[in-house]
């Protein structure tokens, strides 16, 4: 079955896609998760040891880890053999208009995901205290570490980034690049490219399989997400199952990470001190 191309309706046109097997998809999700772990846990300390500022090393490590997502997405799209114009690509990737009902669904599911994640968040500290494998080390921003922000979010971030962060414009550029690779890169690859090919195999159950694989993708580099990572992974996947709309999952994914990016930009732009 996986060797055959299947014609499927995407938006107002017909696309030719190959079903993606469970093992092939799992290899992509876990392979990129392990690559991110190497970049975060090995490359960032490597740069730290050579005197790079810890926030510059952090940005470099995460950008390198997320760098393959967009190229891989476009290579996979190219290999499908479908038209590559914007109209065709936008249909293929799910960039379409959405109505008030789907937007309201996205808002409701986002609230549900946040509530469930907050309820599950105490498990992060449990796992960190359970084994050294779950411990994040010193490479992460305090907002990403269980119990890392001991003061206010702003104060903890400033203490970690250093007193000279305000007005350092290379960091502004790097934060924007990181956001693009993180949110746009992930969504184009996971929901835009991989999801429709999984849907040919799993149909209405795709959100369960895809959500589980997206959850597994995070564990190599965020192992303390073992429980708390479940709600967002499955709820975002459920949203895409119901709407097939790339804009809505980009918005939801952005909301999930909004505090992190907003705090970083506010500090570097000098909005807070």
Describe the fold and architecture:
By secondary structure, this protein is mainly α. It has one domain (13-78, 99-268). It is 67% helix and 4% strand. The chain contains 11 helices and 2 strands, in the order E-E-H-H-H-H-H-H-H-H-H-H-H. Strand 1 (6-10) and strand 2 form a beta hairpin. Helix 1 runs antiparallel to helix 2 (54-66) and helix 5 (100-120) crosses helix 11 (246-268). The radius of gyration is 19 Å and the shape is globular.
Give a brief outline of the structure.
The protein is mainly alpha-helical and 273 residues long.
Report the helical percentage.
55-70%
Which sequence of strands runs across the widest sheet?
1-2
Strand count, sense and barrel status of the largest sheet are: 2 strands, antiparallel
Compute the number of structural domains: 1
- Unreliable residue stretches: none
**Termini gap:** 58 Å
Order of helices and strands: EEHHHHHHHHHHH
CA radius of gyration is 19 Å
Tally the beta strands. 2
What structural category do the secondary elements indicate?
mainly alpha
Task: Please count the helical segments.
Answer: 11
Shape: globular
* Binned strand content: under 5%
Mean pLDDT over the residues:
91
Task: Outline the fold blueprint.
Blueprint: E1 6-10, E2 13-17, H1 22-49, H2 54-66, H3 69-80, H4 86-93, H5 100-120, H6 122-130, H7 153-161, H8 169-202, H9 206-218, H10 230-243, H11 246-268
Antiparallel strand pairs: 1-2
Question: Key terms for this structure?
Answer:
single chain, 273 residues, mainly alpha, two-stranded antiparallel ribbon, 11 helices, 4% strand
């Amino acid at each position: 079955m996986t060797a055959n191309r299947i014609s499927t309706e995407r938006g107002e046109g017909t696309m030719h896609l190959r079903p993606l097997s469970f093992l092939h998809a799992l290899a992509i999700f876990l392979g990129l998760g392990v690559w991110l772990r190497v970049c975060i846990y090995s490359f960032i300390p490597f740069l730290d040891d050579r005197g790079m500022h810890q926030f510059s090393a952090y940005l470099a490590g995460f950008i390198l880890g997320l760098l393959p997502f967009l190229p891989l997405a476009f290579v996979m799209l190219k290999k499908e053999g479908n038209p590559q114009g914007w109209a065709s690509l936008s249909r293929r990737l799910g960039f379409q208009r959405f109505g008030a009902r789907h937007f309201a669904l996205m808002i409701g599911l986002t609230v549900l995901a946040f509530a469930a994640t907050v309820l599950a968040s105490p498990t992060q500290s449990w796992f960190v205290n359970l084994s050294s494998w779950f411990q994040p080390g010193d490479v992460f921003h305090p907002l990403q570490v269980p119990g890392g922000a001991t003061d206010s979010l702003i104060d903890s971030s400033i203490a970690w980034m250093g007193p000279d962060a305000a007005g350092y414009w290379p960091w502004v550029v790097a934060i924007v690049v990181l956001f693009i690779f993180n949110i746009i890169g992930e969504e184009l690859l996971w929901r835009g490219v991989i999801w429709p090919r999984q849907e040919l195999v799993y149909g209405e159950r795709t959100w369960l399989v895809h959500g589980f694989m997206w959850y597994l993708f995070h564990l190599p580099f965020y192992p303390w997400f073992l429980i708390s990572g479940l709600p967002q992974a499955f709820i975002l996947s459920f949203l895409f199952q119901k709407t097939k709309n790339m804009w809505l999952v980009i918005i939801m994914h952005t909301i999930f990470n909004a505090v992190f990016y907003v705090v970083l930009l506010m500090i570097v732009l000098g909005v807070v001190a």
